[in-house]
Design brief:
2 domains; seven-stranded parallel beta sheet; 482 residues; Rossmann fold; 20 helices; disordered C terminus; alpha/beta; 45% helix
Length: 482
């Protein structure tokens, strides 16, 4: 049996699908040919299938590095739902006893999810060195780059970890990375550019129409008008937790829809409950911060609205990519009001240490905790422990501030441009729009029947051709136990 025949057999047996989505088969076959891979596929097109089927085709364990605990847990739960028992996550949510128990039985697992912090713990790394590792997967690989949208200091150590583990076969996955970010991913992970297969597909999602609304007066009333004209379910993104709570309550009162808010202050038990209710179509609208959506496997989301302007194009594409995963018509709406950019500027100031914080830390050898956020403290501690000079630290932070300003300015221009908005977003990634969809953007104009085309669909016909009997059984089980 050829590799191509083998992976198609696994796709049908494990996932119930007969055809791959674009880029998946190419990425898997490259990995099975022994090549490290950098895979960039649009949000919602099934990047996890790439490393899972590769893992099933190889002997040994698969390590998956994931940046968020919620994302990690969602992926573990989804794999278990599909019948995979040999999967676990090692993270800070575990007690020390639970971690020891899992580590003592590591050879019983096939897929092991870890945060970058946990992977770099000496006792975890020592245990992994004794295992046969078939592949190392770096999920959300753009976190490696200081020019990316979600720079994570802990990701910078993953190249050293690869070396410690003997340079295992590696697959780096992302949905949004500019050429500069992709180059930094390769360099940081010690991947040779000439020997790494780069499977790169457009970030464009043609079935998602793009719309911006300049709210000269009451943004809340305009939001309400849009909500009433759209089919549900949908997500509304906010940069403020308080605003997400307030709008969720207001929409419940004004519309009678089932609406819940979701952000980092909500306890884990409620987060899990809200996620599951949304997945099972028991909630019409989620009012959320960026904490919601990553790893949520829901295909029939019809709209994503941004109440506040996102900080950058990468975040925007990640978040709007959570709608229309069934391939049906969907819409992304950005509500813009003069001055919206200043909220992002304030959030930026809270995420990066300022000169006074750095000078105090370098003078006293520790962080002054009273006036700094957790993110600022973490960055300063990393600078101190890594031997970075204060001049280097100041230079890096200045570069980061300038980059964030440029990214926010691009979003400002996107919100106000009268040119094709899809073309404008693609230009950010040095892509060209080769073919406009019928419902492209608010600049190009929508047909009269556009809103009628965004209707709730029967998602039993998936973007793949589905023969997923496990999904049907799961739905029946949930109905029986309501």
């Amino acid at each position: 049996m050829t590799n191509q025949e083998k992976i198609k057999s696994i796709l049908l047996k494990q996932f119930g699908y007969t055809h791959f989505r674009k880029g998946q088969e190419e990425a898997i076959l490259a990995a099975l040919a022994g090549k490290d891979t950098l895979v960039m596929l649009p949000t919602g097109t099934g990047k996890s299938v790439c490393y899972q089927i590769t893992g099933y085709s190889l002997e040994g364990i698969v390590i998956i590095v994931s940046p968020l605990l919620s994302l990690m847990q969602d992926q573990v739960d989804q794999m278990k739902l599909l019948g995979e028992k040999r999967v676990t996550a090692i993270n800070s949510l575990m007690s020390s006893e639970e971690r020891r128990w899992v580590l003592s039985r590591l050879n019983e697992y096939k897929f092991i999810f870890l945060s970058p912090e946990m992977l770099q713990q000496n006792y975890v790394l020592a245990k992994l060195k004794t295992m046969e590792i078939s592949m190392m997967t770096i999920d959300e690989a753009h976190c490696i780059s200081q020019w990316g949208m979600d720079f994570r200091l802990e990701y910078l150590g993953l190249g050293t970890v690869r070396k410690e583990l003997g340079y295992p076969l590696t697959m780096a996955l992302t949905a949004t990375a500019t050429e500069r970010v992709r180059e930094e991913i390769l360099t940081s992970l010690c991947l040779e550019q000439n020997n790494t297969a780069q499977i790169l597909y457009s970030v464009d999602r043609p079935n998602i129409a793009l719309k911006t609304i300049n709210c000269h007066q009451d943004k809340d009333e305009r939001l309400l008008k849009e909500i009433k004209s759209l089919s549900k379910p949908g997500i509304i993104y906010f940069s403020s937790k308080k605003k997400a709570d307030r709008i969720a309550l207001w929409l419940k009162e004004e519309t009678g829809y089932t609406v819940e808010s979701y952000h980092s202050d909500i306890i884990n038990e409620d987060k899990i409950k809200i996620q599951q209710q949304f997945i099972q179509n028991e909630i019409d609208i989620i009012c959320a911060t960026s904490a919601f959506g990553m790893g949520i496997n829901k295909e029939n989301i019809r709209f994503v609205i941004h109440y506040h302007m996102p900080a950058n194009v990468e975040s925007y594409l990640q978040e709007i990519g959570r709608c229309g995963r069934d391939g049906q018509e969907s819409i992304a709406i950005l509500l813009y009001q003069a001055g919206d950019q200043f909220l992002q500027k304030r959030l930026q100031e809270q995420s990066l240490p300022n000169t006074a914080m750095l000078e105090y830390a370098y003078r006293h050898g520790k962080v002054f905790e009273g006036s700094s956020s957790e993110t600022q403290q973490q960055m300063i501690e990393n600078y101190l422990s890594s031997g970075t000079t204060i001049e280097q630290a100041k230079s890096q932070i200045l570069g980061r501030v300038l980059q964030k300003d440029r990214q926010l300015d691009y979003m400002m221009q996107y919100s106000q441009t009268t040119d094709c908005k899809r073309k404008y977003l693609l230009h950010y990634f040095n892509e060209k729009l080769t073919e406009k969809p019928i419902h492209c953007c608010s600049s190009c104009g929508f047909n009269d029947d556009f809103y009628d085309s965004i209707q709730e669909k029967d998602t039993s016909t998936h973007f793949y051709e589905s023969k997923n009997w496990k999904e049907k059984i799961t739905k029946l089980f949930l109905l029986e136990n309501k």
